[in-house]
Structures are given as structure tokens and as C-alpha cells.
Amino acid sequence: MTDKTNTIFGIYPVKEALASQVVFDKVFVQKGIDSDKIESLVKDLEKANVPVNIVPFEKLNRLTRGNHQGVVAVTSPVSFHSLEAVVEKALKSDKAPLFLILDQITDVRNFGAILRTAECTGVNAVIIQKSGGAPVSGDTVKTSAGAIFKIPICKVEHIKDAIFYLQGSGITTVAATEKTNSEIYSLDLKTPLAIIMGSEGKGVSKSVLSLVDQRASLPLLGEINSLNVSVACGAFLYEVVRQRR
């Protein structure tokens, strides 16, 4: 559920917010709407690299009770960082870099909990995709216990491009997946590292799995065959902490 205090709706309010350089998380536009003004607004948003999602009319009604005119924007409580800048900074540090990539995490509470754990475990930056993931909203702030303001978040066009860039920078990529016989405890996690966590329902996507350097799993000793993604992420990150201490 999107925090309504973080929404702007209507063509002119969204246009004015864009002109005032308000940081948007994403913008929702009504599917099939015929409007030159909205078409012009969408072009301006795309030029500003703001993610635009085409959604049914009912979706917009759930986001706001006001007269949205076919467009609702969700603002971000934080500014996003350049992936290149945070990688460069991390590589200059005396400590081995640690990055966290979230492949289509959609639940706001999971996202916030992961940010909190990432901050506590010294992650240099969290990398998310511009489209398809949970919004960076007021709900994220609450569940992160303020960690969202303390850890850099990088938004990229495609997760795969981020993986290529990290690998080219000498950073090993490790995907959390049950599709492997290798447990996280058997890997050397002291080197520059990026851990990839997948979505709540599907896990790390096949296209991403095909690119990573290593795959790792957690032992599951009960009858349930999966963990909540934020819990699994915590287990992975604290194994990194354990090995590096």
C-alpha cells in the first residue's frame, strides 16, 4: 500500500513537482487514456529518467481518493545515488566492498527490513531496478527504522547492467538461490562482494542467475522449503560479517 502522504496527483501538480525537481520514486499513468497533456507530461518524465508505469484506472483509484486526472506520482523520501560513484568510493576504502542487489523485491515491509539489516551489516549500497520493485515510500522509512537515510540506494535501468558493471570492477557476484548444492558457509566472502536477493515469489530471475559468478543457498532443516526474503538476506549478510571479523 502506498503512503498517501507521499503521493501527488493530477496533471498540473505532477508537472509542477517535476519542474521543482521533486524526487519521484515512480509515476502511474492510466492505461488507454487519450490526453495530449498527459502524453506531454510522460515525455517530460521520461527525459528526467522518472519510471512511468501504465496501470488500470482502478489502480489509480486505490492510490488516491482525489481527482487524479489519470496520473499519480509517488515521491521519494530520499535522493538516489549513482552506482558508479558509490562503487568508486567503496573500492578506495580499506575494507572489502559489500553491495546488495535486490531483484524485484515487491513488499514494502521486506524492503524496509532489508535496508535496516544492510545498514547494520556495513553494506556500501543497495541496488534496485527502476521498475517493478517496491516503492521507496513512507512505509519503507518506517520499516527500515530510519536506515533508508543512512545507506545509499542506487536505482538502475536493469539489474543485469549493474551486475556487469560490478563484475568489471572486480566485484564477485553471489546469488541467493535454492538452485544450487553450494551453501553460503562454503564460500569465501572476504573479497569484494555483491549479494543478489530475489523476489518474494520467484526468487532471483533466471536471466540474472545466468550471469552471476556464484550461487549459494541456506540449509533448510524443517518441512517448509523457503525463508522470508528479509530473513534470508540477514543470514547471508551476517555470514559475510562473521567471515570478515
Proportion of beta-strand residues? 15-25%
Structural Rg: 19 Å
User: Which geometry do the CA atoms define?
Assistant: elongated
CATH topology of the largest domain: Alpha/beta knot
The helix-strand sequence is EHEHEHEHEHEHEHEEHEH
Q: What is the name of the CATH class of the largest domain?
A: Alpha Beta
Low-pLDDT stretches are none
Strand order of the largest sheet: 7-6-5-9-8-10
Structurally, the number of domains stands at 2
Helix fraction bin: 25-40%
What CATH architecture label of the largest domain applies?
3-Layer(aba) Sandwich
Brief sketch in words of this structure:
The protein has helices spanning 11-19, 36-47, 57-63, 83-91, 108-120, 138-143, 159-168, 206-209, 229-244, and strands spanning 7-9, 24-30, 52-55, 71-75, 98-103, 125-129, 153-156, 172-176, 193-198, 214-216.
Jot down its keywords.
4-stranded mixed sheet; elongated; 9 helices; 6-stranded parallel sheet; Alpha/beta knot; 10 strands; alpha/beta; 60s Ribosomal Protein L30, Chain: A; 245 residues; single chain
Explain the overall architecture.
The protein has 245 residues and is an alpha/beta fold. The protein folds into 2 domains: 4-75, Ribosomal protein L30/S12 (60s Ribosomal Protein L30, Chain: A); 83-244, Alpha/beta knot. 35% of the residues lie in helices and 20% in strands. The chain is built from 9 helices and 10 strands. The chain has helices at residues 11-19, 36-47, 57-63, 83-91, 108-120, 138-143, 159-168, 206-209, 229-244; strands at 7-9, 24-30, 52-55, 71-75, 98-103, 125-129, 153-156, 172-176, 193-198, 214-216. The strands form 2 sheets. The chain has a 6-stranded parallel sheet with strand order 7-6-5-9-8-10, with helices on both faces. The protein has a 4-stranded mixed sheet with strand order 1-4-2-3. The protein is elongated and about 55 Å long. The mean pLDDT is 91.
